[in-house]
Amino acid sequence: MVKLLTVIGHGVNLLPHFIEHYQKQVDEILIAVYETDLHPSLTDEVLEIIKNYDNVNITITIRERLYDWEKVTQLYNFVKSKRKDSWYVIADIDEFHLYPNDSLHKLIYDCQENNWDIVRGGFIDRIGQGGEFSELVDNISIWEQFPNAGFFRYPMSNACPNKICIMKGYVDVTAGQHYAKIDDHTTWRWQGWRHPLIAPVDTHSVQVHHFKWDSTSIDRVSNVANINEEYAFSSEYFQMYKELKKTNFKIDLLNPDFMFELGLDKPEYNRYKNWNKLIKKIISI
């Protein structure tokens, strides 16, 4: 049985798209709800959306301070630890995975055959037509609404693009779910990620399509920056906000550093032709 685990503290408008993307690929979707004083009724909002789905359930609800990404990571590790031998896909609510051969089950089968317990991946940032931060709507495919795929967040703010995507429950993830920890060692300390428990990156890496960048994200980036706390990675968000302000809150699709490919309006792994080049860049960061 393969479970998908996500933590949701904002972005409820993404949830229907998220469920549609993952529900046929996994056996169960588990949602950890992260309520704050800003969103005190978040659990009720989530329940209203998931009530018509048989395989989507809230696994835990907590109330914490705003934008504490370390608490989010603790939630992932706590829930996974209950079933240490089970397979988990972990993805934030704005992270939509694509798998080699477009098959999660084939990927996990390969892991089981080769005694790999971790599959990692990296970000591909998605943006709307013309580089705009578009308003997300319900009745159109999210891939069609944000058809441009590139790599702009790291060049703009040095945000870590590495992601741990699939793992056994016993494997802990570090802050931001960027790396894994086994026997008190983090994956960035293994040269080239060549730990025997990690699936080979060149053949078994996950594309993490990042649908963070809708019309609500600019205010959120500003709000996180203004918290001015290390636990919120505020300095990174402040840098991102400064860079966005320089371009009048529009992404330059022609910037070669951003590696954009346009018109990727369907969820197909092989459509982003720069992936092999990008993943090599990501694992070097």
Provide a compact summary of the structure.
With 285 residues, the protein is of the alpha/beta class.
Number of helices: 9
Please, what is the average pLDDT? Answer: 94
Low-confidence stretches: none
Q: How many angstroms does the end-to-end distance come to?
A: 33 Å
Question: Count the strands?
Answer: 12
Radius of gyration: 18 Å
Strand residue content: 15-25%
Q: What is the multimeric organization of the chains shown?
A: single chain
Largest sheet descriptor:
9 strands, mixed
H-E order: EHEHEHEEHEHEHEEEEEHHH
Percent of residues in helices: 25-40%
Task: Label the overall shape.
Answer: globular
Secondary-structure content class: alpha/beta
Written description of the protein model:
The chain is an alpha/beta fold and 285 residues long. 29% of the residues lie in helices and 22% in strands. The strands form 2 sheets. Strands 1, 2, 3, 4, 5, 6, 7, 8 and 12 form a 9-stranded mixed β-sheet that branches. A 3-stranded antiparallel β-sheet has the order 9-10-11. Strand 2, helix 2 and strand 3 form a beta-alpha-beta unit. The longest helix is centred in the C-terminal third of the chain and has 13 residues. The model has no long low-confidence stretch (mean pLDDT 94).
What is the secondary structure topology, with strand pairs?
Blueprint: E1 2-8, H1 15-22, E2 28-35, H2 42-50, E3 56-63, H3 69-80, E4 87-90, E5 95-98, H4 104-114, E6 118-127, H5 142-145, E7 148-150, H6 153-157, E8 162-168, E9 172-173, E10 180-182, E11 185-186, E12 206-210, H7 217-227, H8 234-246, H9 275-283
Parallel strand pairs: 1-2, 1-4, 2-3, 6-12
Antiparallel strand pairs: 4-8, 5-12, 6-7, 6-8, 9-10, 10-11
